[in-house]
């Protein structure tokens, strides 16, 4: 395979070439290391990037890959570079969660997903920038500055996994891991013109993921094509006794072997009430054009109603902030986090000063909101009521799927990537960017974003598909078949 640029290859193609010996894993890693070195400052995709340090860290993994090749042991992600969101533990690495509070915190162990990737032959390619503790929809809340969109450097990358999505879009890595609490894999994938999968709740271990909202969080892969995502998801989907919410999915069929099956007979539901106010005209046009493609592929489009989804934004921001308030209580400047330079006279002063100095504005805002809705006198009025609404949203999806719908389609986001700074002073406007993605987290179902076109400004548009719990195969098959019918060849220019 002389003369082939690894940066232009898919993850599956790289793995095949490395396994058969037609390309060396070391050469693949070298190409991506240099690409990241050339572009990371321009886009601000990575935190604590040090090319030589990352290169040294890869040596043990490269030896493992070469030993497996000589022993003719097949590794499904042999030599494949993968960037890791900065809230996932990787032993020895600083895991800051995009926050000044944890800027000196080094992971003492590997998250389960990191162990799985290493065993499969993947090579860790640095840590990606993110909204602080995953709290944001634009990657402007990072303590290390905003990530810039590879398609237009004056626009946001989306959040909170903006660094991961931008790194994949820019060819700095073939795959990346993100985490999705309310759309944090899918929305940046949409803004950056790549694919992002939020698995069913419990399908992928959360052990080693720094928690934001534990009943919502899921780790998911970001890539440039459905086969790469399917292979990665198949490797990550396993029962983990270290995660009490992990589900045994061993009886489920691998998603990669489902990709070639035709879509004829599948029914896709659309809810008109989700396609009205606030939806950009270019996004709406591309969305309905994508449905025509699915009709050509043999799918039936059916109108459905999801009446309670209009309440998803307030429901989410009550429940998620309540969980965040509890989860982030451990960051006190003593057990975890940077201690205040002037701690004060009492333990209470130390806590207050450390958290005031360490947390950014958005994190403080969400902690205070979460503490408020959990406080005496307000619990029933807000938190308990939001939990009841969450159940009604779950029932809306269950009714739609029982009604004969296999998938539900929406735009991934109501607009394409917006200009940096445009929404930072308007929290509600920012929160509404997640209006289509939040429902999948509230209900625990899988969802995927795939690119379907460009708007008149040349920015990517994403289609979101949601499926039944643990039916990721149908989502990935639908994305794969769409790719085969209408190939997405657009890439940002450098």
Report on the structure:
The structure is a single chain. This protein is of the alpha/beta class and 494 residues long. The chain has a domain at 6-263: Amidase signature (AS) domain (Amidase signature (AS) enzymes), CATH 3.90.1300. The protein is 38% helix and 14% strand. The chain contains 15 helices and 13 strands. It has helices spanning 11-20, 25-43, 51-70, 112-119, 162-169, 186-192, 226-236, 281-296, 312-327, 347-358, 361-374, 379-402, 427-431, 438-443, 472-485; strands at residues 46-47, 81-85, 123-128, 148-149, 152-156, 175-180, 195-198, 218-223, 267-271, 300-304, 407-411, 447-454, 460-467. The strands form two sheets. It has an eleven-stranded mixed sheet, with helices on both faces. Helix 4 links the parallel strand 2 (81-85) and strand 3 (123-128). Helix 2 (25-43) runs antiparallel to helix 3 (51-70), helix 5 packs parallel to helix 6 (186-192) and helix 7 (226-236) runs antiparallel to helix 15. The protein is globular, with a radius of gyration of 21 Å.
Please identify which CATH superfamily of the domain at 6-263 we are dealing with: Amidase signature (AS) domain
Please describe the biggest sheet, giving its number of strands, its sense, and whether it closes into a barrel. Answer: 11 strands, mixed
**CATH T-level topology of the domain at 6-263:** Amidase signature (AS) enzymes
Tally of helical runs: 15
Quick one: CATH class of the domain at 6-263?
Alpha Beta
């Amino acid at each position: 395979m002389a003369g082939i640029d690894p940066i232009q290859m898919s993850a599956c193609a790289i793995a095949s070439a490395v396994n058969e010996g037609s390309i060396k894993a070391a050469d693949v890693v070298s190409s991506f290391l240099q690409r990241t070195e050339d572009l990371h400052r321009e886009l601000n995709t990575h935190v604590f990037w040090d090319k030589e340090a990352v290169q040294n860290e890869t040596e043990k993994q490269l030896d493992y890959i070469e030993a497996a090749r000589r022993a003719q042991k097949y590794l499904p992600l042999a030599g494949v570079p993968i960037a890791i969101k900065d809230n996932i533990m990787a032993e020895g690495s600083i895991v800051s969660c995009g926050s000044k509070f944890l800027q000196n915190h080094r992971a003492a162990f590997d998250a389960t997903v990191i162990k799985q990737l290493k065993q499969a032959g993947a090579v860790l390619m640095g840590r990606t920038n993110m909204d602080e503790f995953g709290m944001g929809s634009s990657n402007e809340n990072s303590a290390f500055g905003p990530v810039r969109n590879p398609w237009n450097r004056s626009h946001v990358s989306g959040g909170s996994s903006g660094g991961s999505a931008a790194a994949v879009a820019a060819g700095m890595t073939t795959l990346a891991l993100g985490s999705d609490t309310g759309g944090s894999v899918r929305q940046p994938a949409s803004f950056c013109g790549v694919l992002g999968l939020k698995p069913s709740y419990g399908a992928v271990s959360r052990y080693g993921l720094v928690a934001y909202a534990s009943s919502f969080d899921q780790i998911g892969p970001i890539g440039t094509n459905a086969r790469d995502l399917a292979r990665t998801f198949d490797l990550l989907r396993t029962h983990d006794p270290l995660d009490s919410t992990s589900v045994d999915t061993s009886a489920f069929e691998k998603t990669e072997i489902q990709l070639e099956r035709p879509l004829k007979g599948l029914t896709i539901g659309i809810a008109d009430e989700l396609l009205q106010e606030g939806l950009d005209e270019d996004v709406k046009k591309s969305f309905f054009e994508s449905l025509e493609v699915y009709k050509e592929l043999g799918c039936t489009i059916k109108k459905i109603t999801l009446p309670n989804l209009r309440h998803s934004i307030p429901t989410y921001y009550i429940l998620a902030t309540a969980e965040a308030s509890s989860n982030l209580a451990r960051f006190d400047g003593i057990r975890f986090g940077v201690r205040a330079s002037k701690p004060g006279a009492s333990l209470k002063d130390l806590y207050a000063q450390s958290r005031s100095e360490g947390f950014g504005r958005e994190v403080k805002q969400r902690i205070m909101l979460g503490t408020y809705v959990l406080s005496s006198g307000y619990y029933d009025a807000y938190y308990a009521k939001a939990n009841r609404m969450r159940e009604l949203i779950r029932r809306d999806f269950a009714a739609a799927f029982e009604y004969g719908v296999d998938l539900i389609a929406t735009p991934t986001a109501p607009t394409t990537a917006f200009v940096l700074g445009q929404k930072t002073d308007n929290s509600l406007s920012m929160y509404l960017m997640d209006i289509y993605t939040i429902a999948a987290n509230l209900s625990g179902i899988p969802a995927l974003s795939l690119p379907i076109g460009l708007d008149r400004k040349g920015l990517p548009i994403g289609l979101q598909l949601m499926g039944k719990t643990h039916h990721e195969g149908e989502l990935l098959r639908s994305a794969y078949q769409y790719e085969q019918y209408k190939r997405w060849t657009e890439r940002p220019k450098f």
